[in-house]
Amino acid sequence: MMVHTMHRESPDKGLDSGKYVRYTPEQVEALERVYTECPKPSSLRRHQLIRESPILSNIEPKQIKVWFQNRRCREKQRKEAARLQTVNRKLNAMNKLLMEENDRLQKQVSHLVYENGRMKHQLHTASGTTTDNSCESVVVSGQQHQQQNSNHPQHLQRDANNPAGLLSIAEEALAEFLSKATGTAVDWVQMIGMKPGPDSIGIVSISRNCSGIAARACGLVSLEPMKVAEILKDRQSWLRDCRCVDTLSVIPAGNGGTIELIYTQMYAPTTLAAARDFWTLRYSTCLEDGSYVVCERSLTSTTGGPNGPPSSSFVRAEMRPSGFLIRPCDGGGSIVHIVDHVDLDAWSVPEVMRPLYESSKILAQKMTVAALRHVRQIAQETSGEVQYGGGRQPAVLRTFSQKLCRGFNDAVNGFVDDGWSPLGSNDGAEDISVMINLSPGKFGGPSHYGSSFLPSFGSGVLCAKASMLLENVPPAVLVRFLREHRSEWADYGVDAYAAASLRASPFAVPCARAGGFPSNQVILPLAQTVEHEEFLEVVRLEGHAYSPEDMGLARDMYLLQLCSGVDENVVGGCAQLVFAPIDESFADDAPLLPSGFRVIPLEHKSTPNGASGNRTLDLASALEGSTRQGSEAGPNGCNFRSVVTIAFQFTFDNHTRDSVASMARQYVRSIVGSIQRVALAIAPRPGSSISPMSAPTSPEALTLVRWISRSYRVHTGADLFGSDSQTSDDTLLRQLWSHTDAILCCSLKTNASPVFTFANQTGLDMLETTLVALQDIMLDKTLDESGRKALCSEFPKIMQQGYAHLPAGVCESSMGRLVSYEQATVWKVLEDDESNHCLAFMFVNWSFV
């Protein structure tokens, strides 16, 4: 292929500057090789190219520069054309989906109008005094309907233990599933925030006024139907709550389809309720229009069919006709319809936990949307659209995420057949449950943990776990705080002991220190899902020694961490933070012993104003009197309730079992207390029964408060807390701590970004943090652009005059929430020798936007 380019040469080279230069195929090949390595070569590289390639000797460097510019332009146009084609294809398919949804809604409206007219007619004729027999005909019609219903179960007397009977059940399940997926069998309501579009997850709906709970989703994926079916059938790969799926029988159907008898075990999400299992029939077949469908329903005494395997550790739940319909899309790809409809037997759990088993929103997020997201993730990985760091393949990173979730679920559930057994408490308290597992080869399944998991000194795994109830603390906010402020709850010595399970040398069992986390953490991202609802990362904990005897703690440690559900806009989303110690090598088959937190929303309801509610509740009392406490709400009339599940795992040997158990109980108790303090910090509210954090009483704090008060009086001529300047330091500290305005101190450094060093209770509430985590917050990240400009313009005045007033503005809390204030006063805090110590800020009349 000849490429023509305008080439203007100088006259001394003898070429007409008005003619085109024809690049030979050899020249184009040489330039393309360079373009592959470097699409935008420097001037030095272009001159070097001419010297090294004799075939380019008659081309000027400037003309080569033009060639690369044109080549980049063509590449950009090609990519843009491909992108527009993809978007156009998605829009066409989405338009088709929306037209079908519109047709379904029109049918539903017509049906409702018909039912409304029929009910009006019945009411009119039933209340009338006419002499016709309309009322009698209604009664007769009802009797006929009852007779039909009484005759209907006759088909259940069929022999459902043979292939013909199972095929009859399968065909009925298929018809009912299709009526849910594309018809009006269920009154679907679109979920908030799930707007259809070419880049959205799809159209997501939940059921209203139906038996059980149900969710439906339909979307576009760039995979062929059979590949989509293969992915969705592998339920363990995308459903994190699925423990195992056993196919006990496969029966070919006469129409080319396949019938499978499947036993599925699910994890319980908390320690407060038993796990669920399903005994189902799954039917896979192709429809006449070329669509592929997989439907599934439970086999019960009502439907007939063989009995499923018994299990005393599980509660048998019912799956109503559910499944997925996959239709080929014009131009490639598939349109996927997913329906989940289950009855989880909510009455078998404590009343306070029932919303978890009665919420279609939670079902949609955990199952329906999760399935569609997983297929989309695989599709984008297959097309090369997803980039991962660290040189890891996407499948390996997904395996790490699955291992973390499964290991945490195994710890929370503690199944006997996995080798778990309870360990009694020596102190008589039952708030923390401790279990041990002495069969590491069986622990977590052979595909996740091998017999070589424990080092030579270890003989088992110990798990300490607890659950607590929170009110008015959004799960996403809490988990994000736990992730970003590990120092608020973690103990470095305990982390070091957990990391020692990866080494073959013994390690002393530590004593948990309150706030014992002097190290810094560095979060290194590894991977994230397409919609950023889940991300995998490596956390490096910088080593620190408390004393010369603790030099074993001074080495850096690494955690593999999975965080999910931190988007506050997701309705019904569960938030989770799970991590496990790893070594520096971090092999693909590295064993993992996960620990972490799971926060699940239970309910969100409105109640009359003026009711009082607690931020954190004692779970035992909540289970005993859940009806009374469930009616409480905050002053704003809303009640957010969520359950937090905590589980931490440690290795032990025969000589340290009791000491490790004691340490684990103490550690989890301290974490429960830390979460209560964190809940108070990130969700401040009037009238809480939990006392606010106590003011620091160290000599340094007393001195700092005295400097703050004296400097304010010296610079402004007014007293910060009143007219009495002879007040004791203890009284000044109490007055500053309870001051109604937010008062914060910021470091005064010229060679580094200023960070906050101290704040009163109101200041901590405004920044949604605590005193320890406060030191991680920088001033320039808190103020918005106008606030930073105002501070910079007033800074010379502050240094000369000692103080300045900043206008009203907006700042940002550590949780990302915007805070407005009417005025801010800034002044220099002077030490006793009149040297500059820090800057003090007072934000007046602040409120969350």
TrEMBL record:
Main location: nucleus
SMART domains named in the record: HOX (SM00389), START (SM00234)
Coiled coil residues, start to end: 74-108
TM helices/strands, residue ranges: none
Compositionally biased spans, kind Polar residues: 125-136
The keyword Transcription belongs to this UniProt entry's keyword annotation: yes
A GO CC term attached to the entry: nucleus
Domain START: from-to ranges: 159-387
Keywords: Coiled coil, Differentiation, DNA-binding, Homeobox, Nucleus, Transcription, Transcription regulation
DNA-binding region: 16-79
Compartments reported by the entry: Nucleus
Region of interest: Disordered: 125-160
A GO biological-process term: cell differentiation
Family that this chain belongs to: Belongs to the HD-ZIP homeobox family. Class III subfamily.
PANTHER family documented for this protein: HOMEOBOX DOMAIN-CONTAINING PROTEIN, HOMEOBOX-LEUCINE ZIPPER PROTEIN ATHB-14
UniProt name for this protein: Homeobox domain-containing protein
Species of origin: Brassica oleracea var. oleracea
